[in-house]
Amino acid sequence: MASPAPVPASPGSSSQKKRGATESIGLYAVQCCECHKWRTVSTKDEFETIRENFTEDPWFCSKRPECSCEDPPDIEYDSSRIWVIDKPNIPKPPPKTERLVIMRGDLSKMDIYYVLPNGKRARGIGDVQKFLDTNPEYKDRISAESFSFMVPKIVEETVSQSSLWKTKKAKKQDKINASSSKKDKANASSSEN
Ligand SMILES: [Zn+2]
Fold first, then answer.
1. What is the pLDDT at residue 187?
2. Which of 44, 103, 117, 136 has the greatest number of C-beta atoms within 10 Å?
3. Could you list the residue range(s) of the whole structural domain that residue 57 is in?
């Protein structure tokens, strides 16, 4: 698989409590271009650095101290968690901003937000432009080109396998079962009369 800088999201994390409020990504990983093993990346900042230049500067196990392609992978690409795959070469968020990747509650789509230096959230480049227009003092430090609202691709197979998804489905099934058994009872009582 040639996909470069991916992000696995852990399903059912505590971020579900405050839906849409916090970052959905629970773990970062990168695939070695040589052996194709997955290596976890410990911080978001490091991940964003790797992702920024991924095409010109592909990642290899040997970039990590004391790591080589001989070592077993840190993480397996499987359905034990939901995986989302980022596009390469997304610019690093400008200073004093944070890029948030948020999974929708129904796991259908992700949204990108930037937290701007004034604490407000930008949902699109229009919001960034508006911020720069009202706060021109940031114009020399923050350029609109540094923002990317490119959403990662959700790996659907891993969503349908995830425990969160299964729980949701099971709950739905319970509801259906519950309502149909009610109906049965109603039918039963009516036939008694
Ligand atoms: Zn390797």
1. 44
2. 103
3. 6-179
